[in-house]
Amino acid sequence: MLKSGILSPTGETQKHQSGSNTLRKFILTPTAPEIPQIHGPKVFGVRPGSPFLFSIPATGKHPITFSADNLPSGLKLDKKTGRISGVLDKRGEYVVNLHVKNSLGKAERTLRIVVGDNIALTPPMGWNSWNAFGKSVDQQKVRAAADALISSDLAEHGWSYVIIDGGWSVNQRATDPLQSGQPYDSLGRINANHKFPDMKGLGEYIHGKGLKFGIHTSPGPETCASGWTACYGHERQNAGRFADWGVDYIKYDWCSYTSIAKDNSMPELQKPFLLMRGILDGIHRDIVFSINPGPQGRKSDPWKWGKEVGANMWRTTGDINDKWLSVSRIGFSQHYSEYAEPGHWNDPDMLVIGKVGWDMGLRATKLTPDEQYTHVSLWCLLSAPLMIGCDLTELDDFTLSLLTNDEVLEVDQDILGKQAAMVAEQGDLCVYSKPLEDGSIAVGLINKGTARAVVTANWPALKISGKQIVRDLWRQKDLGAFIDKFESEVAPHGVVFVKIKPSK
Q1: H helices of 65-138, where?
Q2: Between the N and C ends of the chain, which has fewer C-beta atoms within 10 Å?
């Protein structure tokens, strides 16, 4: 038996922990080396004629300089920031060799640029305001989040989206002057409320950091919070306004469209999403289309028709919260692996780690360290869009370690785009397996129970044979060669997350 002691390196019984000093002892992710390394997706999709923005995620001692071979005509690289920008008009694929260098060494990697109809060829990674701030979000908090993605080095590991959830539009029932106002301008375009005095400037600020800008709205007359203006009857004007603001991502949430839909038929469920998809297709800007079809829509299995309405991702569940019951109920019910593929992703909602609060005051997540490791590992196995929900200005070292483990994140960003499937289950113990582009497999040994237990991954269940090298992804450490099976003692609500590949 291999006793890994995952998540309990001190041998202590875990409780809900808070405080950076308390949590620091649970950190497994090694410190990133000072020699340069390139991270993030190995493929990037763009539509012909759309603005191109890709920031090369790279870690190492600064300053770092960037260069690229075979960069197609129409694109340029900023050698100091690593940002690639421009426009590509011709369909096709380009293989670009990326290089980074600092005073201690250099690294290189290929990036495949695909100019065609598909974007979001790997699951989007970024930050969403809702779980931290709810409707109290404002422009200053969003700018601070963008700043924190850079200052915390999260952007160097591939986190790139800054998304404003509900609370930015005009609340037509509000008495607070910051929320009230005219919902639309003279051209029928949606207005931001006074908490966001310069949306276009905010988009430019985010783009100026090499990041992407996202926004939340609804096909109904109001968002999910009563009174807040949404898109119904102004879809085309609003899409044009979003493009003018520089929006790169729209979270399109069913919300009040229930009052518009004639019934619960499939045509009515799909109608508002098809309408917005058609409008976005006519805009010369790539906008990731994330849909939430609402409770009734989820009953109709949106993973079966999300691609049909042109969505890049679709919510498969109701809202998550920071309790194990919520995380486990959602995470272990995601059995839709055949519907995930590059450009189209099952979305089990955001990460509930760090300091959250939903507009009720920030507090530490209620998940134990074990549960947080399982949460992040499972979402990466599921090829889920990764959206951080906490306040990025109050990141502790433990939360940062969960979000900057490149070997773990590479599982989520693997270019095959395969979602893991559960391949073995015995009581509270289960094994997930995900095939990877390099021929290896990512495997999660998970204990859903309340007592430590040995979890076994047998080779026949993983469809492999012979001697295999097993690597602990959280510790970034090879565990040795194994024959027939790999087993490990796993903490309650914990995980052992490994990569398995044939021994040479």
Answers
A1: 130-133
A2: C
**pTM across the whole model:** 0.95
Mean local confidence (pLDDT), 408-424: 98
How many CB atoms within 10 Å of residue 380?
A: 26
Calpha distance 79→55 (Å, rounded): 11
Mean per-residue pLDDT, 147-162: 98
User: At CA 44, angle to CA 41 and CA 48, rounded to 5?
Assistant: 170
Sign of the Cα torsion 335, 336, 338, 343 reads negative
CA-CA-CA-CA torsion sign (154, 476, 379, 276): positive
- Euclidean distance between CA atoms 233 and 229, whole angstroms: 11
Choice among 244, 319, 359, 428 that is catalytic: 319
Predicted local confidence at residue 17, as pLDDT: 56
**Cβ density class 326-360: b for 16+ within 10 Å, e for less:** bbbebbbebebbebbbbbbbbbbbbbbbbbbbbbe
437: its two tokens: 């582009």
Element (H, E) at 201: helix 199-208
Percentage of residues in the chain having pLDDT higher than 90: 93
Of the residues 253, 286, 406, 472, which is catalytic? 253
Report how far residue 22's alpha carbon sits from residue 368's, in angstroms, rounded to the nearest whole number.
12
What distance in Å separates the CA atoms of residue 267 and residue 245, rounded to the nearest whole number?
31
Overall average pLDDT of the 427-435 stretch? 98
For this structure, is 147 an active site residue? no
Told to judge if 286 belongs to the known catalytic residues of this protein, a careful annotator would answer no
Distance CA 248, CA 188 (A): 21
Mean pLDDT of the chain: 95
